[in-house]
């Protein structure tokens, strides 16, 4: 019984660790199983297509797997990346595997300085986003403008009644106003209360209760 409970606690810890992992920095092996090499499969677009599968964030790490002496990594400017000007570089990493930390947001360019390797497709550009920057604030939505109340129209008086032959003025009957229709309050149903978060929490509590009941049987 005690061992089974320990297993349950271990499962909870593992799930929590996996959820926390999503907020931590990641390591990316450049090129996957191909590694960092000249004449990659697919030609010059190989590393660009590989990078398009990921979203790189500040503090992530690029891991260039290569054999020291056969390849190396240099960080270059955009212009030198496009024309393979690898001699004028920003940083150089000569020992493999090389771990390159992405310390800031922006677009970064890398290549191999060995002769002919850049032109063969051994170059990489990545776009790094700043995950710590706050999301843009939404502009508050303004409600519809309220029009000023229309001025009350003056009462238009009709022509004065003509006196009758007897000399008396006929009295005018007052206009009857129809009563306003009454709204049946019971006909309008109140919108259901609750949210997806409440349902999710209830379902999670239900699963957790079943799990505890299962453990108590041992």
TrEMBL record:
GO terms for molecular function: electron transfer activity; metal ion binding. Residues 26-130 form the Phytocyanin domain. The lineage of its organism: Eukaryota, Viridiplantae, Streptophyta, Embryophyta, Tracheophyta. The keyword Acetylation does not apply. It comes from the Eukaryota. Keywords: Copper, Electron transport, Glycoprotein, Metal-binding, Signal, Transport. It comes from Phaseolus vulgaris. Residues 163-174 have a biased composition (Low complexity). Residues 1-25 form the signal peptide. One of its GO terms (cellular component) is plasma membrane. Residues 130-195 are annotated as: Disordered. This is Phytocyanin domain-containing protein. Transmembrane segments: none annotated. Residues 130-143, 180-195 have a biased composition (Polar residues).
């Amino acid at each position: 019984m005690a061992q089974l409970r320990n297993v349950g606690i271990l499962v909870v810890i593992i799930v929590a660790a996996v959820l926390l992992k999503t907020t931590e920095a990641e390591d990316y092996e450049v090129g996957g199983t191909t590694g960092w090499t000249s004449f990659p499969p697919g030609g010059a677009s190989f590393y660009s297509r590989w990078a398009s599968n990921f979203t790189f964030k500040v503090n992530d790490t690029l891991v260039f797997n290569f054999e020291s002496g056969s390849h190396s990594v240099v960080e270059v400017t955009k212009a030198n990346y496009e024309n393979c000007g690898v001699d004028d570089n920003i940083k150089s990493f000569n020992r493999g595997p090389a771990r390159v930390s992405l310390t800031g947001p922006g677009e970064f360019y890398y290549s191999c300085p060995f002769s002919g390797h850049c032109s063969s497709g051994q170059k990489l550009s990545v776009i790094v986003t700043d995950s710590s920057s706050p999301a843009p604030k939404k502009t508050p939505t303004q409600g519809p403008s309220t029009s000023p109340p229309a001025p009350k129209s003056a009462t238009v008086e009709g022509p004065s009644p003509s006196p009758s032959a007897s000399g008396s003025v006929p009295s005018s009957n007052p206009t009857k106003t129809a009563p306003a229709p009454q709204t049946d309050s019971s006909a309008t149903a109140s919108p259901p209360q609750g949210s997806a978060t409440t349902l999710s929490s209830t379902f999670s509590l239900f699963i957790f209760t079943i799990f505890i009941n299962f453990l108590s049987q041992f």
